[in-house]
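Supplementary Methods, section 5.1.

A reviewer requested that the exact input to the structure prediction be made available. We therefore reproduce it here, unchanged from the version used in the analyses.
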Amino acid sequence: MGGRILLIEDEGNILEAITFILSRAGWDVQGHGNGATALDAVRRINPDILVLDVMLPGRSGLDILRDL
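The structure derived from this sequence is encoded token-by-token as follows.
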């Protein structure tokens, strides 16, 4: 298992917990916490998997998903 995951989540404790679990399973996890700049992070990181929170500051996760 492995690959790059971009986790877009604004709650620090949730981001930390999910990152810990996925990292232990062999994934390279990058975190991002702002909906307004999330598309830039997706383009920059080019993840294999995107985990996207729905309620984000600056822009909703559903809007980001529509743009992708």
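The beta strands are 4-8, 28-32, 49-52. These observations are discussed further in the main text.
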